[in-house]
Amino acid sequence: MKSYISILLCSLLSSALLSDTLTLKNGKVIEDVRAKLTETHVHITYSSGRTNEFKKVVVKSLKLKPVHWALAQALGQHRKELYEKERVRVADAFMSNTDWVIPEDEKPRLVFIKFQIGTGIPKEKAEMYSNLLKTKITKTNLFSVIDSRSIEKALAGKKCIGSDCAALIPVELRANKILTGTISRAGTHIFINADVIDIKKQKVDFSESLLIEELSEEGAEESVEFLAKKITGGTMEYLEQQSLKNPYEGKSVKWPMIWRSTLVPGWGQRRDGSNLKA
Fold it and tell me: Does the domain made of 104-239 have the CATH classification 1.10.8.60?
């Protein structure tokens, strides 16, 4: 029985990894593919392994389906790694073109709370990794990152204490999510555990972790950048934004991006028995 369940879950997982939807301006809809973007084209891969590409000028919309992280965990480490790559793919898709700019007032607002110092690590090194992660998240240019100084400034004069102050954060800062976690050390390994918290629901959306060996400074930076991409892809997944039409009309060689216009996790995905709709 367990083997049949594993086969079923693997089948569901495979389809989830090929569940992007591409809509062309001529009305053609191409479903259950994996999409990759370059400067001028959208490249797609079908379940058969066959590939195709379309110029961005003929694309109406592209919908990226979010990852079912709980399912990935149930399938073990190998499948979990596939899902990690999917989250990185989503992040890379949003970040892939420097001429795609999200309007500042429409970016998701992410509160970055300095990571707590765990066991076995000097304060200076923990703060270095925390600041490095904040920098990498900020450089994705997909969020309005709110740091502790911004929080203190927004709450100055509110005369609140503890949880009362926390309750004011989504109101005063119009924040969507909180990113926080812990950094610790055991032997020659650095452990970074990150939690993305939904402020409105007051619960953890998902967690990501990173293990860094005593690498060169360059190697550590690459590892933190990979963690930042996983966090970015996961956060986009849980935002469940909706896809609108591609505004490109063929008047320029560039393809400007408006938030909620081209790449969106969550479109039409069935979750908890109901479809997410536009």
Answer: no
